[in-house]
Design a protein that fits this description.
The chain is of the alpha+beta class. It folds into 2 domains: 2-109, Ubiquitin-like (UB roll) (Roll); 115-129 and 142-245, Alpha-helical ferredoxin (Fumarate Reductase Iron-sulfur Protein, Chain B, domain 2), CATH 1.10.1060.10. It is 36% helix and 11% strand. The chain has helices spanning 31-44, 116-123, 146-156, 163-167, 174-185, 188-191, 194-207, 218-222, 230-245, and strands spanning 2-7, 16-21, 67-68, 71-72, 94-98, 107-109, 112-113. The longest helix has 16 residues, at 230-245. It is elongated and about 60 Å long. The model has no long low-confidence stretch (mean pLDDT 96). The chain binds iron/sulfur cluster and FE2/S2 (inorganic) cluster.
């Protein structure tokens, strides 16, 4: 297979696409196994291996950020790059591999980008304050209707990968932030700090330099966890209510 990979030595360096050939790719390999094998081939030739992020390799940590053939996490739907398999490509294909591009995600090296902006947004309000000194209330003490519990759980499946930002023409982080806001907004435990949460998280999102949402919907299509745009509508409603209250 032919690979065209973005190589960039550091955040200030000028990057470029570099072409490689990789052999012995099995259709059963995950995309990251193929990248590992390619790196081994580069190391054997005395060349610098390609830097890329990964951790769990089972679709739950959100680390494997790659823009493959123009799509975040590649051509498959509802999967991360680590869950993408080489059987999705054909023998002899040329695959273009780039980092997740956004001003708020500076390139660290090659395909690895700095997504700590997401951490700072989470720290601004993506939590509830509870007493954990031994008096914690039993989780089932407050009945929650099934519809709300299911919606909150769906929102909570966001893994913070950043594919929504990379897919958006405005580099908007609205899908991510709205998932984090929604998972609490739908539950009674989240209502106590709801006003501060949405104001602080949205303010932090703006400070980090993410763009605005223009309802294109690319984020929802490319999200590996199927996070719905309805979360953005819920966050906008929460934000409006909080602005009136504050
Ligand atoms: S909303 Fe989807 S694409 Fe965006 S960070 Fe969460 S899981 Fe990733
Ligand atoms: S490496 Fe964890 S989601 Fe891909």
């Amino acid at each position: 297979m032919k690979l065209k990979i973005w190589r960039q030595a550091n955040v200030n360096a000028q990057g470029e696409m570099v072409s490689y050939s990789v052999s012995d790719v099995s259709p059963d390999m995950s995309f990251l196994e193929m990248m590992d094998m390619h790196n081994e081939q580069l190391i054997k030739k005395g060349e610098d291996p390609v830097a890329f992020d990964h951790d769990c390799r089972e679709g739950i940590c959100g680390m494997c950020s790659m823009f493959i053939n123009g799509e975040a996490h590649g051509p498959d739907r509802l999967v991360t790059t680590c869950q993408l398999h080489m059987r999705k490509f054909k023998d002899g294909d040329t695959i273009t591999i780039e980092p997740f591009r956004a001003n708020a995600f500076p390139v660290i090296k090659d395909l690895a980008v700095d997504r700590s902006a997401f951490d700072r947004i989470q720290q601004a309000g993506g939590f509830i304050s509870v007493n954990t000194s031994g008096n914690t209330q039993d989780a089932n003490a407050i009945p929650i209707n099934k519809h709300d519990a299911d919606k909150a759980f769906d929102a909570a499946t966001c893994i913070g990968c950043g594919a929504c930002v990379a897919s958006c023409k405005n580099a908007s982080a609205m899908l991510f932030v709205s998932a984090k806001v929604s998972q609490y907004a739908l539950l009674p435990q989240g209502k106590v700090e709801a006003t501060d949460r949405v104001l602080n998280m949205v303010n932090q999102m703006d400070e980090e330099g993410f763009g605005n949402c223009t309802n294109t919907g690319a984020c929802e299509v490319e999200c590996p966890k199927g996070i719905s745009l309805e979360n953005i509508a819920r966050m906008n409603k929460e934000y409006l209510t909080a602005t009136i209250k504050s």
